[in-house]
Specification:
mainly alpha
Length: 446
Amino acid sequence: MSVRDLVVTAIIVALLPICFAYPWKGVLTWSWLGYMNPHRLTWGFARTTQFALFVAIATLLGLAFTKEKKRLPATIEVVLLFMLWGLFLVSTIFARQQADAWEQFDKISKIFLITIVTMVLFQDAKKLRTLVYVIALSLGYYGLKGGVWSIMTGGGNQVMGPEGTFIGGNTEIGLALNMILPLLLYLAVDEPRIWLRQLLRVTFCFSIVAILFTYSRGAVLGLAAVLPLIFLKSRARLFVPLLALVVAFFGQSALESVMPQEWLERMGTVKTYEQDLSARMRLNSWKVGYALGMDYPFIGAGFRPFTPEVYHHYTPEETINDWQDAHSIYLQVLAEHGVTGFVLYMLLILSTLVTLRRVMRAARRDPSKESLGRMAHALEVSMVGFLVSGVFLSMSYFDLFFHLIAIAVMLKVLVRLPAPELAAAPATAASLPRQEPIPTRPLVRF
């Protein structure tokens, strides 16, 4: 038992009555626990205590009595979520690996439940912005910490997430950091407090460093997709072609002079994947995932169907004496839930992106909804980070992905209101003390 265990436990126990009295704050607490995993930063009893379960129980009990809840929005995204959830149940009933499948179904059902509760409780712009703050800073902690650590150690080691969590691996934390980069800058735009605005920007910068030093090729490719989209919304977007030319001429030599040799060799395997064991294993996993999806096209093989026997059955000629997951969000869904699940999953992604575009168009027509439009664009870029980095790892059911969908649904609800209460608007923040004026044209216009 350590002091850190006692502090984390005391904080969470003190928050439980608040989660019951104000269930929307319970969702915030659950998000803090789910993304930052503060209990995983301890070394004693708190490390394995199921705090998230206690918070979820208090929140759901409070939900039954609160008057703040609203009707679940009847949107295509909500319908698709329930259809996916139902398909997950059916595929689990007929899964190849029953024990593993039911365990995974239980975990994902909790994520779906919290996603639905979020949509019931967060139909308010101020609350929604607070939720984005909790998500961005909870994961941003690891970006800030990892970036500083990488610089101090010369980048010779991988940046990893908290052990035993969804984001414990280097590729997983890289994907998560890619997803919060646009959220950090979006929050900084309207933030009137200088210290917090600067903290968001510093966290953004160090998170980029942390992503690079995850040594994850998928995370770096995701960063290459996210940063241009962020930059194209900045005041300097006219210099994008010039920057591209500079990178083309000097990028390779600049990297060689700055990055450690281990990093250069790791990234170099993108071109020589035939000689890289990790890349060959990933390609083998994709082959197995696709084959499973084709053999079980209607409901899939169920959660976690990848076993040594499955690998030997579908790739008997492969000499790689190892097996792993699908290593792709797309092929994971295809293998586990068939073509049916894959189509529903992709429709959910597509409908969310269309919703975000519609919110941005509505915000352009109404200046009072400008902040909603910026949030929608930040979410769109975050989704791109997930879709690109997700090509290379199995995080199809990452809770942040479903939280983004819930936030997109809330934006659709808010943008339709005749006079939305924008908690992020400068007028709302004007009551807070300012040490300097906020520029009318921010560097990055989310």
